């Protein structure tokens, strides 16, 4: 888990506390790995983010694009017809997490500001092979389906319960049932 020094953070102690509580929950309750607390923009280290953000790798994929879902089903049917074993679930992807409190009132403007701070895919912690935007080349090529920004809102209650909601930037095609 990579943490930036909170003494140099431009954020309030309240927001940092929410971030640390959410990070702890993701690591110990949900078994995420490669967790990173971001207080400054990954692409411009001197630019503070509007609020602290987390990024990390969940143990399994949280979201599958509807078009990717169709492609995976077709591939599974093709493999079954040819007698080849199934490849299993798609690999997990790094995700953004926005720590927030249950009593916070979000506006569309605030969500737009947070999404403006993010890249489509969170940067790998101390990754090698990054391009000029701080995005790992292999990750860019590996997921042609991830074209819009998304984040989990990590909503913390006073009793330390954390609930997560997936939020997309813009309109997203509905999933197939």
UniProtKB/TrEMBL annotation:
Residues 22-177 form the tRNA-splicing endonuclease subunit Sen15 domain. Residues 130-143 have a biased composition (Basic and acidic residues). Residues 34-53, 74-96, 120-143 are annotated as: Disordered. Keywords: Endonuclease, Hydrolase, Nuclease, tRNA processing. Belongs to the SEN15 family. It comes from Phyllosticta capitalensis. This is tRNA-splicing endonuclease subunit Sen15. SUPFAM superfamilies: tRNA-intron endonuclease catalytic domain-like. GO terms for molecular function: endonuclease activity. InterPro entries: Sen15_fungi, tRNA-endonuc_su_Sen15, tRNA_endonuc-like_dom_sf, tRNA_intron_Endo_cat-like_sf.
